[in-house]
Structure formats: C-alpha cells, structure tokens
C-alpha cells in the first residue's frame, strides 16, 4: 500500500501540468544525451591516447610501465616530461634558454607534449562534468515527472 503525503503544493491547471511534465521529459532526454556524449568523448580521448603507445617511464613517481590512456596517466606523464625537460635545460624553461642553445628545441618539444597531455586531461574532465550534469538532468526531470503526475484523459 502506497501512502500519500500532502506537501502543500501549488494547484496547477492542465497547461501548467503539461509544461512541467514536458520539461521533466526534456530533462531526462537531454540528460541521457549528455551522458552518452560524455561516454563517447571519454572513450575517444582514451583510445587516441592509447594509440600513441606512450608508456610511463621507470623514473616516474607512480604508474611506471603503464600505457597512457586516462587522465591520471596523462597527468603523470606530463610531470615526467617536465622533469626531463628541466634536466635537459639545466633548470631553464624554453623561454629562458638562449635562442642559439642546442637544447632549446628539445625543451620546446617537451613543452608542446606537456600541453597536449594537459589538453587530454581537460578533455577527460569536461567529459566527466558533462556526464555528471546529464545525471543531474535525468534526476531533475524524473523528479518533476514524479511530483506532477499525468492528468486523467478527458472525454470528448
């Protein structure tokens, strides 16, 4: 047996009920789409990183030997690249090295690689955010449709 509770809610006319229920349905559909797009984006970035066959070196603080295919892997690999670039550049960044310094190109490439890895970390974060927002949309939409049940059909 289901108990009913009076919440002191508003009295809605037929149009308002339909609008609230339609808004709830739109939230559910939009939320599901956001979740699907988030999964596709996450999988796409992950597969593209894996296709590069980047392996975290043994001198990494964690995850040594792992293939880079996720946000944590990418972040760790970017840190390792920074560590190596600092060693190669004698503690100087690309901008601090003289233009004719032979290691400047290597340090520049390291900087570009780090930026690319950080871009993938951001992409994973955006995908996770989209999925979370999608889940909230589904919950809000479901809540609206639960709070405002459908009206009975009228005889014509």
Briefly say what this structure is.
The protein has 156 residues and is mainly alpha-helical. It is 64% helix and 0% strand. The protein is rod-shaped, with a radius of gyration of 26 Å.
List the helices and strands and how they pair.
Layout: H1 14-51, H2 71-88, H3 104-147
Helix pairs in contact: 1-3, 2-3
What characteristic shape results from the CA principal axes? rod-shaped
- Report the C-alpha radius of gyration, rounded: 26 Å
Sheet with the most strands? none
**Which structural class do you get from the secondary structure elements?**
mainly alpha
Helix segment tally: 3
The amount of helix comes to 55-70%
In terms of quaternary structure, the protein is single chain
Q: What is the tally of beta strands?
A: 0
The stretches of 5 or more residues where confidence is low (pLDDT under 50) are none
State the end-to-end CA separation.
Answer: 33 Å
Q: H/E order of the elements? A: HHH
Strand content: under 5%
Average pLDDT for all residues: 93
